[in-house]
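B., you asked whether I could sanity-check this one before it goes into the benchmark set. Here's the sequence:
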Amino acid sequence: GARLVSLKELKGYDVAEGDADVRGWEVRTLSGRELGKVEDMLVDTSTNEVVMLDVDLAGTDRHTLAPVRAAQLDRTRRVVLLDSADLEDTS
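And here's what the prediction gave me:
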């Protein structure tokens, strides 16, 4: 199975040129509700691809994971848009 590792724990790894480093970006639902901020990105070390986003939920001490494939990026506003149905509670 996939082994997911936090990008900040991987020495010598960085976001591929041309891909957005979304750490610190605001996360909102497709309808515009604020969810939080991207705390980190989780890498599948067997494929060296970012597969999940670790989202620090606003106003709580909880985090959730969201699949990168479900995220839409607004690079101009530095916002990650997600359908809330794609979130996994990791409290």
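One thing to flag: The two ends are 23 Å apart (CA to CA). Otherwise nothing jumped out at me.
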